[in-house]
From TrEMBL, chains A, B:
One of its GO terms (molecular function) is S-methyl-5-thioribose kinase activity. It comes from the Eukaryota. One of its GO terms (biological process) is methionine biosynthetic process. Residues 36-270 form the Aminoglycoside phosphotransferase domain. This is S-methyl-5-thioribose kinase. InterPro entries: Aminoglycoside_PTrfase, Kinase-like_dom_sf, Methylthioribose_kinase. NCBIfam families: MTRK (TIGR01767). PANTHER family: METHYLTHIORIBOSE KINASE. It is an enzyme of class 2 (transferase). Its EC number is 2.7.1.100. Keywords: ATP-binding, Kinase, Nucleotide-binding, Transferase. Homodimer. It comes from Hibiscus trionum (Flower of an hour). The lineage of its organism: Eukaryota, Viridiplantae, Streptophyta, Embryophyta, Tracheophyta.
Length: 419, 419
């Protein structure tokens, strides 16, 4: 075999690789006339090639043993591609409408071949910056999260299946550690990697590092992240890991997947929608004040949680006499008890969601990796204003999350900060 | 090799095994004159042989692929011996004063050779039934728990070490499932295995199965047990897993070990002391009303938690600039913050301890496996009275654990139920 040991591919060697790989060459009917290959990786970590021929197409994603946007000075196991492939297949099996199909995986090469999400698919974050409404977004994302999280939890699985899967994903520890560092640690200490819109936010960044209550709360969330194997989470579910059209919603890039707290995924998605909301004022102008768009974003945030709640508890009801071992039917088979059990579970999950969502927001404002929503606002003082409002809300959510009873109250808090 | 595949040993084949095993034969200087072997397994699961020669001694524990006290009809992996050996070595390394040394482990034979805890060592439970005071018990057990739990948690370990160890102990899933069933499930449903002092406790057993709040709370504890990898816990730390003399305290039998919630161990130990307390009235008589002994038990319970708290937080303080990744020094390095962080952590741990302790008490009264503390009370109506008081307290602890602020309040509640 031509590729019996790892090597980084480029546009040329990729063709040789495809020719040697039936599961890929068959996708383009083995015909290489008019084949076009383009590297498009705009993500932070990996290389992504789009392969389009008249007869078909696919995407090749390869992990190199370091973090792409930083370089070889920050090594990172290429085994992440393995966990990404396993998660894509697992989540894809549970929710095929919203996960691209995997055609091929090569562990030696840390390489995944998957469906090309053809235009007009774009990265959701870019759509949000452009002010495009996606009427099915909340519906689709709540469906994706409800199904992937429910079916990989002990609400559906036996302990035997659960512990086997937990053990396997313990292997993705390097990626977990990266999250621990950039989400739960660096923003709360002096770190060479941190940055923010300076000098505007200098005092805000200081305040984050000096806020004892905030640090107390973020420690609790970090413990949950490190210790609680609740479900197979995506692990990086921001708006840059979702590709969309008007009708289609596709979740990509689960290389951070492991058994962790469900609220980390739901919070990542909702937290990034909240960032998109606070960035809108920086995109307003030329006769578009983004007011209507902001209303749509608020509705989408509210709908995402409420639909998730509805779909998740519906799956629970449907499967309450199934093989899940958390709540045995012989014990929890009365409607009143089933109701209070679900209410308690969903309440904790809601508070986890707000806490993790807030932590993900904070790190995007004062940590190493920022979001295009804010970065694309050219005027620094306007950007800083947007970021400060998002930061203020995030701190409130993180510290007072247990006081929030519904997503409606979060929306109210957002409006209040905004005004 | 004579024992290249698994076979259950008996007194005779054990001699051949010892002769073929240098790490064992050397313990008795290879001299077999006057060698005595006695099977003493009074535990529920395994076979234990005491091997004593003039020149030395040891104990051999062998796991068979079923549960001893039930028989071959309840299969149970003999791989539990592997996890017991790993836990004995790990905990023994952290706290050698209170864990018997392992001389030999044979995975094929599911067989452990370890130090013989020679007389006057007896099982603590038997000492408690006999009304014997152990003045160092709280000191020793708090030391054992503080060291084993602290050093295997993220307060001391890196995430990398933690996830590797968690993954390995996921393999002990069959034993975890046994706990899930007999502690968290069976007592709350109709099960062929359940029993209780009938007819006296018939209504009490019904009440457990019909108590929605109790079932709601026990579900939360079960989730923690299944999902939260906080430290390498012993997993079966009742008073039958501790051997004592006046001066020595030795913890045996960690075959249920895995990465779980710390409160499960602390609760098991304290819960079983509480059972011992409520059993005392059944042992009173012949001029000994056990009043003084009950006072000692209450003091021991109080001291166990308070000393644990003190030792655990002292280890934390000592190691706060170490390699533990839960609370990085660069973030948590101020005394005020360190204090509130510890208070929060210890408060949650206290409530976990009460909850798990209560669950362990309940299962010993209405579940499959009872305790000799009660079983040795011959008069059924007296026994039932003792058990009912213990059950009443346990239900309060489980449901209202978050209202308890100190162990002193638990002692008060015990006195109140008792009077
Ligand atoms: N299946 C796909 N179809 C189309 N474009 C894709 C696909 N997968 C990735 N991309 C493009 O490549 C970019 C980087 O991919 P991603 O999986 O997020 O990599 P990284 O792990 O480096 O962030 C995405 O933002 C998207 O533009
Ligand atoms: N190291 C030892 N020294 C002396 N006696 C022991 C030792 N280990 C076990 N025993 C005796 O064997 C009994 C059963 O051992 P244990 O490890 O609790 O087995 P099981 O897993 O079957 O409960 C103990 O109650 C104790 O009496
Ligand atoms: Mg990406
Ligand atoms: Mg990625
Ligand atoms: Mg035992
Ligand atoms: Mg037990
Ligand atoms: Mg045992």
């Amino acid at each position: 075999m031509a590729f019996s040991e790892f090597r980084p591919l480029d546009e040329n060697s990729l063709i040789a690789y495809i020719k040697a790989t039936p599961s890929l060459s068959s996708e383009i009917s083995d015909s290489y006339d008019g084949l076009e290959i383009k590297e498009v990786g705009d993500g932070n970590l990996n290389f992504v090639y789009i392969v389009v021929a008249p007869s078909g197409s696919f995407v090749i994603k390869q992990a190199l043993p370091y973090i792409r946007c930083i370089g070889e000075s920050w090594p990172m196991t290429k085994e992440r591609a393995y966990f990404e492939a396993v998660a894509l297949k697992e989540h894809g099996g549970l929710c095929p409408q919203h996960v691209p199909q995997v055609y091929h995986f090569d562990r030696t090469m840390s390489l995944i071949g998957m469906r090309y999400l053809e235009p007009p698919h774009i990265i959701l974050r870019k759509g949000l910056i452009a002010g495009i409404q996606y009427p099915l977004l909340a519906e689709h994302m709540s469906e994706y999260m409800a199904r992937t999280l429910f079916y990989t939890s002990l609400l559906f699985r036996s302990t035997t299946e659960h512990k086997r899967a937990v053990a396997e994903f313990c292997g993705n520890v390097e990626l977990c550690r990266l999250t621990e560092q950039v989400v739960f640690s660096d923003p709360y200490k002096v770190s060479e990697y941190n940055r923010w819109t300076s000098p505007y936010l200098d005092r805000d960044a200081d305040a984050v590092r000096e806020d004892n209550v905030l640090k107390l709360e973020v420690a609790e969330l970090k413990s949950k992240f490190c210790e609680r194997a609740q479900a197979l989470i995506h692990g990086d579910l921001h708006t840059g890991s979702v590709m969309v059209t008007h009708d289609s919603t596709q979740v990509i890039d689960p290389e951070f997947a492991f058994y962790g707290p469900m609220g980390f995924d739901i919070g990542a998605f909702i937290g990034n929608l909240i960032l998109a909301f606070f960035a809108q004022d920086g995109h307003a102008g030329q006769g578009n004040d983004r007011k209507i768009y902001k209303e749509w974003l608020l509705r989408t945030i509210e709908d995402t949680w409420n639909l998730f709640h509805q779909k998740f508890t519906a799956l629970w009801d449907e499967n309450k006499n199934g093989s899940g071992e958390a709540y045995l039917p012989a014990i929890y088979n009365n409607p009143e008890l089933q109701k209070i059990v679900q209410e308690k579970y969903m309440k904790e999950l809601f508070h986890d969601t707000l806490g993790f969502g807030a932590a993900k927001m904070i790190r995007r404002i004062v940590g190493v990796a920022h979001v295009e929503d804010f970065e694309s606002i050219k005027e620094a003082n306007i950007r800083a204003g947007c970021e400060r409002r998002a930061l203020e809300l995030a701190k409130t959510l993180l510290k007072k999350r247990r006081d929030f009873v519904s997503i409606g109250e979060v929306i109210s808090a957002m409006k209040q900060v905004q005004s």
